[in-house]
Amino acid sequence: MKSLIFRKSDESKLEISSHALLRMLAFVQDDRHKPEAGGILIGRYIRNSQDIVIDEITVPMAGDRWQRFYFWRSRQSHQQILDQSWLESGGTSTYVGEWHTHPENIPIPSDTDIKNWQARLKKDIFSGDTLFFIIIGIKFLRVWEGNKKTFIFELLNESTSNDSS
Ligand SMILES: [Zn+2]
């Protein structure tokens, strides 16, 4: 599977590695018994650019609570993985957002999602002004970029070209 590339609001690129993609897609709610799932996005800024690559994600783990329309993430266990990646990468891999699944073809954030995303922008520590929020629907994966100054969530378009500009 190829990585996916989205165009950020500042025109630079957000790449989701095939590894991260495959791990998230394993939780697609394509069966009515599968619960919502989610985790955090671990990425790094590409040197001399605003481009970001999401290399790794966390998946549901002990302490999380899963239901078909609800996912609650225990902060501690996901934070441990984040801390470990940060150390192993020499301080380049960092928290860049969150992902979760929805049992609908084309995912649309719920009011709870928006509130939660706003809380992440307010409370979480991260570099830059934005965090990324991925929702994995049954047929489509969508990415929103949230800005901590404006609290606007912009739906990002997939970049079809592979140019480096
Ligand atoms: Zn949701």
Account of the protein in words:
The protein contains 3 helices and 11 strands; from the N terminus they run ββαββββαβαββββ. The protein is α+β, with helices and mostly antiparallel strands. A 9-stranded mixed sheet has the order 10-9-8-7-3-4-2-1-11. A two-stranded antiparallel ribbon has the order 5-6. It starts with a strand and ends in a 7-residue tail after the last strand. The structure holds zinc ion. Residues 100, 102, 109-110, 113, 135 line the site of zinc ion (ZN).
The termini sit apart by 24 Å
Please state the structural category.
alpha+beta
Question: What share of the residues does DSSP label as strand, in percent?
Answer: 25-35%
Helix/strand order, N-terminal first? EEHEEEEHEHEEEE
Mean pLDDT: 90
Ions, cofactors and other ligands present here are: zinc ion
Number of helices: 3
Helix content: 10-25%
How would a textbook summarize the main sheet? Answer: 9 strands, mixed
Low-confidence stretches: none
User: Which strand order spans the largest sheet, edge to edge or round the barrel?
Assistant: 10-9-8-7-3-4-2-1-11
Using the CA coordinates, give the radius of gyration: 15 Å
Inertia-based shape: globular
Quantity of strands, as a count: 11
